[in-house]
Amino acid sequence: MEKYIMPLIFALILGYAVTPAVKLIALKIGAIDRPDPRKVHKGLMPRMGGLAVYLAFTAAVLLSPARAYPVVWGLLAGATIIVALGILDDTRGLSPRMKLLGQILAAYVVTYFGIEVLYITNPLTGKMWMLGMLSVPLTLFWIVAVTNAVNLIDGLDGLAGGVSSIAALTMAAVAWTQWGSSGIAGMPDMVMLSLILVAATLGFLKHNFHPAKIFLGDTGSMFLGFSLAVMSIMSLTKSATAVSVIIPLVILGIPLLDTFFAIIRRFHKHQPIFQPDREHLHHQLMAMGLSHKQTVLVIYGLSAFLGINAVVLNLISSDQALVLLIVLAVVAIYSANRLGVLGGTSRAGFRTIKNLKRHKPSKM
């Protein structure tokens, strides 16, 4: 038991202890986040804090039994490329095209170590579809999509780190239940990877929760998204259950839905898909009157709710799972529309318009 507990304690302590040093490095090399109309913070803030999470995670993994698996070295190799890419973006700024190319490279390195989505199980029939030549392209798409989704929700102190921690903890719970029923070899060590990521991130969150002393930066948000995407392939997709293809989508529901709704919103408004805006979930919740900290905690709660449902999906029958998924989808779309995340006017927006009309000055 000690060989599993000690890496977690080490990751937690190192994530907390190394962050102040990373903050000094960020200030020295110019990894500074400057305020703009789209951002919530008002002053200069050091970023690149994800380097601390990466260092704590990597060191703890190398001390854990999981290091014996070649796929784990694939995860670390790809994550190293992602962190290097993030440091360049946090210090110099990279174009979206360069970032995308770097993400694809990191994802491809992972496939070289045998980390691929080999099959998809039809959630309606339970039939397995072998992907064949589509395996690598689909793997690349999944990893890049999740990497960017987590990167996009990193808009408030502690938001991306907390949501990622909840997602990783849920992955560990689901993987453990799958191992108990299927006996997949090595699953406990894959569970360990998720828990180490949770511990390393929680250590950093002490410095990153509102009011933050340092930001994750693209270094951290891309590292977290990349790691979650790869670990979901290493563990969750190994199950042949009918809902195995859906569970990672539910676990990562907050970042994936926020990104998906942003694409729909910008397409509907004839805006470039990569153009930033202030209509993400956290923006809309703050527009309703929630404070910075309250908004983050509400999104934590939503992430935990989806996490619980992901665990339930893994334990119930396929028919019951299908009903639950339909309910979750309807609630998500309805809530997003009411909040204005889909591009309409939120309830907070309607109140603002009503107040403006009420206080409109009379004509002279």
TrEMBL record:
Q: How does it sit in the membrane?
A: Multi-pass membrane protein
Enumerate the GO terms in the molecular function aspect.
metal ion binding; phosphotransferase activity, for other substituted phosphate groups
Q: What UniProt keywords are attached to this protein's entry?
A: Cell membrane, Magnesium, Membrane, Metal-binding, Transferase, Transmembrane, Transmembrane helix
Q: Where are the transmembrane segments?
A: 6-27, 48-65, 71-88, 100-122, 128-147, 159-179, 185-205, 214-236, 242-264, 296-316, 322-341
Q: Report the subcellular localization.
A: Cell membrane
Q: Name one Pfam family in it.
A: Glycos_transf_4
Q: Which GO biological process categories is it annotated with? A: cell wall macromolecule biosynthetic process; cell wall organization; lipopolysaccharide biosynthetic process
Any GO CC annotation of this UniProt entry: plasma membrane
Coiled-coil annotated spans: none
Q: Which residues bind Mg(2+)?
A: N151, D218
Q: Which cofactor does it need?
A: Mg(2+)
InterPro entries according to UniProt:
Glycosyl_transferase_4, PNAcMuramoyl-5peptid_Trfase_CS
Give the PANTHER family listed for this entry: PHOSPHO-N-ACETYLMURAMOYL-PENTAPEPTIDE-TRANSFERASE, UNDECAPRENYL-PHOSPHATE ALPHA-N-ACETYLGLUCOSAMINYL 1-PHOSPHATE TRANSFERASE
* Protein name from the UniProt record: UDP-GlcNAc:undecaprenyl-phosphate GlcNAc-1-phosphate transferase
Origin organism of this chain?
Answer: Desulfotruncus arcticus DSM 17038
